[in-house]
């Protein structure tokens, strides 16, 4: 698997709602988008998204919103290294009914309309979460379990309450709709078209003001394809970081259609 991982600057100042008790120290969020087709067509992938047409959606899913450190920290027991905090409050379990109820009048789904490529408001905010932050796991098909896992590991470290955390993740996806951004740049999901990785990064950078981190995987034919897009979000710009993974600005990749 090849990755291009850089973090340059935050593009959105999230509305933070401080929790009672200790505050978690971190530098920025990674708001991570996943292209479902690239998850489902990888060899041995765990994929059980079953809409009407039995295909994954032609839109990015939220994969997570993760607090991160600008520089990784060495743990108390070497060689453990921590690049993000996790599981910061074991007593703050997710209450999905309360979250959905509190978001009912304020959330909007960013799922694209098939004809007009416009964001559509959903009265049912549970449906908005499913459409934008659904689970592709065969083993864990209940999205509430998925959201609970994300909240327990990452949300409890966000210095936000549950409403603010999920609201911020959905609002960010709606504000910077990657599917629409790439379509406007002429990058269309396809089994045949091949795009330079730099073209994808440049399109997102121009539209958002921030260079994304792009992660690729391989489909069953061994072709490199777009998989994850990490965007840096926070209340102050993090210092540039770079992973030790192989990277190439001129990598040629595909964006598989559904």
UniProtKB/TrEMBL annotation:
Coiled coil: none
GO BP terms: RNA catabolic process
Pfam families: Ribonuclease_T2
Keywords, sorted A to Z: Signal
Gene Ontology, cellular component aspect: extracellular region
Signal peptide residue numbers: 1-22
InterPro entries attached to this UniProt entry: RNase_T2-like (IPR001568), RNase_T2-like_sf (IPR036430)
Superkingdom of source: Eukaryota
One Gene Ontology MF term: ribonuclease T2 activity
Family: Belongs to the RNase T2 family.
Name of the protein: Uncharacterized protein
Biological source species: Eragrostis curvula (weeping love grass)
């Amino acid at each position: 698997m090849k990755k291009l991982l850089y973090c340059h600057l935050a593009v959105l100042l999230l509305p933070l709602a401080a929790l009672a008790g200790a505050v978690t120290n971190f530098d920025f969020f990674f708001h991570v988008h996943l292209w479902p087709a690239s998850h489902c067509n990888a060899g041995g992938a765990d994929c059980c998204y079953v809409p009407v047409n039995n295909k994954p959606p032609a839109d990015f899913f939220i994969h997570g919103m993760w607090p991160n450190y600008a520089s990784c920290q060495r743990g108390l027991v070497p060689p453990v290294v921590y690049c993000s905090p996790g599981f910061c409050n074991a007593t703050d379990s997710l209450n999905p009914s309360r979250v959905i109820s509190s978001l009912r009048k304020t959330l909007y789904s960013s799922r694209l309309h098939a004809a007009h490529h416009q964001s559509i408001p959903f009265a049912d905010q549970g449906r908005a979460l499913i459409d934008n932050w659904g689970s592709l796991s065969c083993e864990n098909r209940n999205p509430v379990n998925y959201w609970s896992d994300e909240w327990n590991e990452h949300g409890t470290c966000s210095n936000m309450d549950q409403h603010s955390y999920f609201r911020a993740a959905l609002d960010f996806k709606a504000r910077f709709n990657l599917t629409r951004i790439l379509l406007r740049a002429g990058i269309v999901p396809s089994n045949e078209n091949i795009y330079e990785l730099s073209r994808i990064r440049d399109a997102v950078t121009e539209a958002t003001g921030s260079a994304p981190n792009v992660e690729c995987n391989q489909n069953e034919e061994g072709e490199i394809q777009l998989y994850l897009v990490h965007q840096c979000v926070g209340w102050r710009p993090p210092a540039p970081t770079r992973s030790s993974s192989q990277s190439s600005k001129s990598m040629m990749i595909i964006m598989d259609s559904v």
